[in-house]
Amino acid sequence: MAAIAIGESEWEVAIPEKPLKDKLYFENLKAKVIDTNLCSRCLTCACICPVDGITAVDGVDFPDYEAKCTDCGACVRVCPRFVYEPKSGLGSYIEFIAGRSKRFAGQDGAMVTELLVSAMEMGMIDRGLFAGRDEKWAIEMFHVRDPQQLAITTLGGTKYTFADVLPALKKAVRFTKRGVGVVGTPCIVSGVRKLQQEFPIFREKVKLVVGLFCTENFHYEDISRYLKEKGVDFDKLIKTDITKGKFIATMTDGEVKFKVKELEEILPSGCNVCTDFTAVESDASVGSVGSAPGFSTVAVREEPAKKVIEYIKEKGYADFGEADTSQLNFLIGHKKEREKNITKPI
Ligand SMILES: Cc1cc2nc3c(=O)[nH]c(=O)nc-3n(C[C@H](O)[C@H](O)[C@H](O)COP(=O)(O)OP(=O)(O)OC[C@H]3O[C@@H](n4cnc5c(N)ncnc54)[C@H](O)[C@@H]3O)c2cc1C
Ligand code: SF4
Ligand code: SF4
Ligand code: SF4
Fold first, then answer.
1. Ligand nearest the Cα atom of residue 268
2. By Cβ atoms counted within 10 A, which residue in 39, 84, 124, 303 is the most buried?
3. 206 conformational bin, left if phi > 0, alpha if psi -120 to 50, beta if neither
4. Rounded to two decimals, what is the model's pTM?
5. Would you kindly state where each structural domain of the chain is located, as residue ranges?
6. Residues of 160-171 as b/e, b for ≥16 C-beta within 10 angstroms?
7. What CA–CA distance (Å, rounded) separates 14 from 277?
8. Which of 199, 186, 206 is nearest to 81 (CA)?
9. pLDDT digits (tens, 9 = 90+) for 269-323
10. Alpha helices in 241-298 (DSSP H)
11. Residue 234 CB: number of other CB atoms within 10 A?
């Protein structure tokens, strides 16, 4: 057992055996996950590290761990890929629908934004974590506590770069009174669930977990260099999208379009072993495939999300239609094939 503190609270947590017995826990994490290219860069480990030593500059690392790591083992305990049990498929759901918010604009039907704002209006949460961006498309995390903040138009929409959602969640759970809503790719959702399994504060305070369908994501430096080479002017860029096998960068004065297959050369190793397309562990997962253009596809999986959808329907905040699960089969199958890339555990 080890004692871990977050804010005022402290918990005893059980820590797994070290595969490399004479090494620090961080060295075990490095040997088993980071150096074997399994790391998804979800930053669950960075979120829980009591000395805030884990960073994601050139890959995930703890540069001065020899001096600063307390060998508490929390990073190993929460890492979803330390004992990797790949998830895949459509997952279980209560309802599978297409939705388009009447109040917000977003990447598709803005149902992610609608879910978080409605949860806020219902009093389920007092803040939602959004991945916004700066003028060069580098992600900045925002704690949205008032829908008026959504006047920052860059909060919605998809950014194809990793977001530091979980370090932001660490702060959010300390300050929230009612609860937090969080959005992320399937690897981030798995990290949230691990944190909830291990730490009461995350069970009590994280009230809504929205997952995004995800085939791949990219390191900011790699994708921005690639897009610049393709002629994308970041000062004019208004939207990025991956649809029907094409990456489309829409600028104020035109668009750059190319086959998404070309991006394989910068595909992060953690995505190359990732099998979960639909965020099967989320309360609701949302994507574009499966519904008509301008709509978001929503898999309502758990009770909290069902309540929010009922509220949205009652208030008439969105148009709803049918979603077609069969359209997801190709991408689900494509990700399942990545199982073969997973290295054997040490
Ligand atoms: C990396 C990535 C890959 C995706 N791949 C697919 C795919 O292959 N097929 C598919 O159907 N859908 C995919 N999606 C989901 C899709 O692009 C939309 O995000 C989804 O349909 C929701 O649209 P919306 O209009 O409801 O969301 P909006 O209301 O516009 O809200 C978007 C939300 O996404 C969050 N967000 C944006 N970028 C990131 C990020 N990088 N990390 C964490 N959160 C972020 C924002 O904070 C915001 O809350 C992907 C999303 C991401 C981030
Ligand atoms: S201090 Fe604990 S959580 Fe941080 S790296 Fe060391 S063992 Fe991991
Ligand atoms: S998979 Fe996530 S928790 Fe595990 S080492 Fe990588 S960033 Fe840390
Ligand atoms: S493919 Fe998506 S969910 Fe999987 S590791 Fe990459 S970013 Fe995370």
1. 4
2. 39
3. beta
4. 0.96
5. 2-78, 95-218+259-341, 220-258
6. bbbbbbbbbbbe
7. 30
8. 186
9. 999 999 999 999 999 999 999 999 999 999 999 999 999 999 999 999 999 999 9
10. 269-272
11. 15
CA of residue 108 to ligand 1 center, whole Å: 9
Taking the chain, what is the end-to-end CA distance rounded to the nearest angstrom? Answer: 23
User: What is the mean pLDDT of the segment spanning 147-154?
Assistant: 84
The answer to whether the Cα torsion of 314, 318, 320, 323 is positive or negative is: negative
CA of 17 to the centre of ligand 1 (A): 36
| Ligand 1 shell residues, CB under 6 Å | 106-113, 130-131, 156-161, 163, 165, 183-185, 212-215, 217, 242, 286-289, 296, 331
Hey, which residues does 143 pair with through a beta bridge?
129
Q: Which ligand is nearest to the CA of 29?
A: 3
Q: What is the pLDDT of residue 156?
A: 87
Length of the chain: 346
Atom 6 of ligand 4: nearest residue by CA position: 271
Largest CA distance in the chain: 60
**Measured from the CB, is residue 49 less than 6 Å from ligand 2?**
yes
